[in-house]
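Now for my pick.
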Amino acid sequence: MYNILGKIFERRVFFTFLLGISSGLPLALFESTLRVWYTTAGIDIQDIGFLTLISLPCVIRFFWAPAMDYYSLPFLCKRRSWIFTTQLLTVIILLIMAVQDPVNAPLRLAILAFILSFLSSSQDIAIDAYRTDILTESEKPFGSSMSVNGFRIGMLISGGMAIIYADTFGWHIAYTIMALLMLLGMIVTVFSPRTPQEVTHHSFKEVTFGAFKELMSRKKVLYILLLMVTYKLGCEYGTCLLQPFLIRKIGLTISQMGHLSQEVGFFSAIIGGLLGGFLIERFGTYRSLIIFGSMHMFSNLGYMSLLWIGESNRYIASGAALFVESLCGGMATAAFVSLMMSLCNKKYTAFQFAVLSSFGSMGRVFTGPPAALIVIKFGWEFFYISSVLFSLPGLWLLFYLKPELQKAFSSQGS
């Protein structure tokens, strides 16, 4: 127990945890929470499905990642200056979103959410690079788990807490409060430790073409990129319409959704983060990817079971389903982040992590429209069963790429 607490409060690991909260905070505000806002406004489910495209910057972030690898802003260090700037701009956009209304101006709010997505992706580029640069090889497995833990807590704040505030005080107050919370992330950035040694590049061309050439020269790189896409594809597909499902099909209220996300999700994130970090160190990253990925593959079936439960028990059952899915998701994501850090060349951290995480975000971005069509045509049961099938390619690729992945893990003993 003391060993785990010592690892949590090791300065570099602890600040990656705090920055993980800042990284996760904006995400729900242009994804799940935004979908709840549109759902309660009476927007059609097919249109809500298209809201997942707002997260497109998460997929194309590698286009501007080289600039964040090459250029430095004239304050703090390179990584922290970019983090601080994106946080400041995020606060401004959230304050503007707070005075919008999806009933009267759904497109305007969606455009602002798209800008928020761009800023969130940019903050992630800088934080991912900072985490990869600052953690030692021995700290990376547990550090990645704590970062994911913080990220999920940030999502729960902007998911569960924001929804509760919206139900009590209105959406405008909820988004204003989230903007104020982002200010705390700016304070964390100022006091976070400086990266021990920053790589200096001779030219912008080296950052872009050099980083891309190095990545693409690796053995079976196309299969590695395909693994990035497919590892969490089934679960991201299975949760992209979770808010309309729980509110419209299962019959939960906004307040119930908020309390489940905040309370159940919080404990599952904490347990999943700590357990994930412990088990990754015990089993190694490769075996953890297989075990956690297999667990996460079946976790969405808990939501399908809600269709067969009486209305009086659906709230408790929804909490149980959310706990299991969040727990498995947190563990799988921790292993996945550890994998991406292992695959990055430290000379090109921002660009290469952005490329890998961009491919990893594709499922979250592009599954919404086809998922909505499948629900409309075949129903919710078929939708959740198909989510299991979408998970199989990623697990098969883990076995196919075992030699290449274990070589990447060898530097950190995973």
Notes: Residues 8 and 55 are 31 Å apart (CA to CA). The two ends are 22 Å apart (CA to CA). The chain has one domain: 7-412.
